[in-house]
Amino acid sequence: MTNRDNRPVLITGGCGFIGCNLVDRLADRGNSVLILDNLARAGVRENAQWLKSRHGDRVNIVVADVRDPIPVIDAVREARAVLHLAAQVAVTDSVADPVGDFEINARGTINVLEAVRLHNKSAPMLFASTNKVYGRLIDDTQIMRTGARYAPVSKTLSDGISENAPLDFYSPYGCSKGTADQYVRDYARVFGLQAVVIRMSCIYGPRQFGTEDQGWIAHFLLSAIRGTPLTIYGDGLQVRDALHVSDAADAWLTALDRIALVRGRVFNLGGGPRNSVSLLELIDRITQLTGRKTKYTFADWRPGDQPWYVTDTRALSTALGWMPKISLQQGLYTLHAWLDGRFGQSMPNREASA
Q1: Cβ proximity of 218 and 204 under 8 Å
Q2: Is residue 100 a contact partner of residue 88, using CB atoms and an 8 Å limit?
Q3: For position 4, what pLDDT does the model report?
Q4: Where along the chain do its domains lie?
Q5: Contact 255, 198 (CB under 8 A)
Q6: What is the pLDDT of residue 352?
Q7: 9-343 carries CATH number 3.40.50.720
Q8: Burial, 119: exposed, middle or buried (Cβ in 10 Å; 0-12, 13-18, 19+)?
Q9: Model confidence, pTM
Q10: Residues 36-89 pLDDT 10s
Q11: Selection from 354, 338, 349, 347 nearest residue 17 by Cα
């Protein structure tokens, strides 16, 4: 995809955390961006104002919902590429309202796909999927405790979970995102769309308004900054790999720019084994970073919670030469700096190290 095409890149959900970081990167490199966002989530209006203040007329925002096909068609018609990130993103909300979750994630994605298929078939489309399509993945007999974390018993998982892992959705959220995930893949195969599925794991970084239900790394840091106690669902030994949003944006934009190489593919995107961390380990890191001890209590596991998930990023690295650049320690520092500047009083006087 070249910059000679002056049509905008459409980003649905472009005022959300990952979306606004992608908008910022695209606008910085001279691209026009059209955002379609219903501005319903906390923090997105602030992100919208931030984008407009930085980029002015290079960024245009249409307030609309992907469940409404008409504004989706209008936006897709004028786009040279579509990055589809608009979604309901919390497992807990999907359990409370599975129909609403389906309408946003599954039906909304069909609306985007149909708009591309019928009105702008040559436009590349990248879809934000999730590691939750793999469900709980492994049961208690397949993990062991090692210090303050779980680890898989099998050495075959030392590089993480690859795209060949079987799908097993295990929550309404997993079902709705998994449905959309498979529709995007099949629209590439059946209708020839230039579509790519990106299954993401624990993206974090500046402009993330973390809550208990979504954005757990930011939520943990905010709790430390505010001095509020955390609730840990499960035993705290569960492991995730974390990827800084700057590295995630690199992957997305590289896939967009080299769409001919990756069209029709599915990729897992995360920090990989080197950037894996358990909940208890993260709390210790936050204590070291902030100098503030976080209080926490335990509660029951939630539906679909994965005791261990680490991304195998080798397929993406092989296809596009992408690798994470920002270590978890560096990334936590940048997120803490942003959160403390936005919500806190002062930053500790210390530098990050690699």
Answers
A1: yes
A2: yes
A3: 60
A4: 9-343
A5: yes
A6: 35
A7: yes
A8: middle
A9: 0.93
A10: 999 998 889 999 999 999 999 999 999 999 999 999 999 999 999 999 999 998
A11: 338
Question: Tokens for 63?
Answer: 């307030």
Alpha-carbon span 331 to 329, nearest angstrom: 5
Alpha carbon distance 164, 167 (integer Å) = 9
CA–CA dist 91, 282 (Å, integer): 21
Instruction: Please list, in sequence order, all residues whose beta carbon lies within 8 angstroms of the beta carbon of residue 200, skipping any fewer than 6 positions away.
Output: 18, 128, 129, 130, 131, 243, 248, 269, 270
Cβ proximity of 316 and 251 under 8 Å? yes
DSSP sequence for 236-270 = S--EEE-EEHHHHHHHHHHHHHTHHHHTT-EEEES
pLDDT of 354 > 50? The answer is no
For residue 11, what is the enclosing H or E element? strand 9-12
> Are 199 and 131 within 8 A, CB to CB?
yes
101 close to 94: Cβ distance less than 8 angstroms: yes
Mean pLDDT of 242-252: 98
What is the rounded distance in angstroms from the CA atom of residue 135 to the CA atom of residue 167? 7
290-319 residue pLDDT tens: 988 889 999 998 877 889 999 999 999 999
Tokens representing residue 83 in the block: 């990055």
Q: Which region holds residue 346: left if phi is over 0, alpha if psi is between -120 and 50, else beta?
A: beta
Average the pLDDT over 180-200 and give the result: 98
Catalytic residue among 134, 173, 187, 204: 173
* 187 carries an active-site annotation: no
Dump pLDDT digits (tens) for 137-149.
888 888 999 999 9
39 within 8 A of 48, measured Cβ to Cβ? yes
On the 0-12 / 13-18 / 19+ scale of CB atoms within 10 A, 231 is: exposed
- If one compares 354 and 53, the residue with the highest pLDDT of the two is 53
* Cα within 13 Å of Cα(285), Cβ side: 24
Report d(CA 312, CA 159) in Å as an integer: 5
Q: Which residue in 231, 270, 271, 251 sits closest to 319, CA to CA?
A: 251
